[in-house]
Amino acid sequence: MNVTIVLIVVLYMLLMLAIGFYSSKKISTNTDFMVAGRRLGPLLMAGTLAATEIGGGSSLGVVANAYGSWGMSASWYIIAMGIAFMILIPLAPKFRSSAVKTVPEYFRRRYDKFSGGFSAIVMMAALVGLTAGQFKASASILEVMLGLDYTTSLIIVTLVITVYAVMGGLWSVTLTDFVQVFLIVFGMAIAIPFALNLAGGWATIKQTVPAEHFSLTKGIGGWGQIAGFVIMYVATFSVGQEAVSRYYAARDGKAAVQGSIIAAIVNFVFAFIPVILGLAMLSLFNQNLLDPSVVGALKTNTRYALPALAVATMPAVVTGILFAGIISATMSSADSDLLGAGSIFGNDLYKIFIRKGAKDKEVMMVTKIAMVIVALFSLVTALYANNILTLLAFSFTLRAAGTFIPYVMGHFWKKASSAGSIASILIGSVVFFLMDTKVLPSIPTVNNIIPALLISLIAFYVFSLIMPPKKETLELLYEED
């Protein structure tokens, strides 16, 4: 591997650690650690929102799908995120005004301790799996890019991510995300001119790539699947601790709204960058212009063909920046998942069920210890699990299928009750699980989360009416930190 490429990637890793050390100096309370002292302005909030959700699937995955059967329609994987951020604009001030640190804390204070504890277990389990998956993705990319063995790569990314996340909490994650989102967008955009030039320009690409690859709907499966993506993202962004914590951390409702708008714009701009790279690669393949090593990478795993193409065709500096951008995509998601898991354990399990009334400093220390334990568990899982990416997609959606309705409706409907919340979480999650495991039949061309959410809504409404709350209110139960 070229020394320049290795140096750029190493400098990027060191920069992440330096930001973590700098951020640690700004942490004095648990609120600082979990929600960055609630002081994020629109730009920082937008950067961390976008970086958290643009992961390996939104970068290398979209390149691979554009190269494969999806073509131009692969852009909807990212465009749908932008649409989801726009849909969340009316909810953004509500999220911020709740003044909670975690989603399970909202459930506990809006409904009861059981709802908070049950949602904490469901969400933490999903975040542990998501952390392991992002560690695995990060290590696999580092392995391909730098020629290291997988185990060494996994240890490196686990150490770097864990150290800077534990040192500075959400403030550290936010600052690193702000750098990472720039590297993601710029790092992949800078590769476009080289890919286009090698392919002979856009006109040549259009001549050498099948016409159906330029359809915006055909490859992805039509508007039904696109709507499913949007609904899935709205649901998961609303209740996923790794995403909604950014709204909690905004300095006010206005900053939350503006951050959501800017994050949406970033997604809209970025959406076609990996698509163009994927189509350019397909054109190069069809023209027999790819290096044999790149062709070999395509046969092994299309996700890693872009790094192979970069090494074969681009200057070392450009390749190094591209590699830093690619690794940023997975690391910016991994740090958020890790922090989310630790925050939920400390704030919603330890303080409420294990050591009731634990003080602020103690909870923050326990959160950091939990993050280290989750990181170690995720490292071991990533070493031995083969099909973890499938598990990730499952746990990611399962979490939203049950918790989305009671979480969002709790902000608007005074008659929402604890019984409705519990029924909604249980029934929505079970229905999605049974449909996803083929026990119940799926609806053709419809994402399984859609019927699960509809049934979750019915359960929430019916049980809230049958077993109404003792007091009809939108106010949250006060808790001391």
TrEMBL record:
Q: Mind listing the GO molecular function terms for this protein?
A: transmembrane transporter activity
Q: What PROSITE patterns does its record include?
A: NA_SOLUT_SYMP_1 (PS00456), NA_SOLUT_SYMP_3 (PS50283)
| Gene Ontology CC entries for this record | plasma membrane
Q: How does it sit in the membrane?
A: Multi-pass membrane protein
User: Is the keyword Coiled coil assigned to this protein?
Assistant: no
Pfam (any one): SSF
Q: Where in the cell is it found?
A: Membrane
Give TM regions: 6-22, 43-68, 74-93, 114-133, 153-174, 181-200, 220-240, 261-284, 304-327, 365-385, 416-435, 447-467
> Which Gene3D superfamilies does the record match to this protein?
Sodium/glucose cotransporter
Keyword set includes Lyase: no
**What keywords would UniProt list here?**
Cell membrane, Membrane, Transmembrane, Transmembrane helix, Transport
**Record-linked InterPro entries:** Na/Glc_symporter_sf, Na/solute_symporter, Na/solute_symporter_CS, Sodium:Solute_Symporter
Q: Which GO terms describe its biological process?
A: carboxylic acid transport
Looking up NCBIfam families in the UniProt record yields: sss (TIGR00813)
Similarity comment text for this entry? Belongs to the sodium:solute symporter (SSF) (TC 2.A.21) family.
- The name of this protein is SSS sodium solute transporter superfamily
**What organism does the UniProt record list as the source?**
Sphaerochaeta globosa (strain ATCC BAA-1886 / DSM 22777 / Buddy)
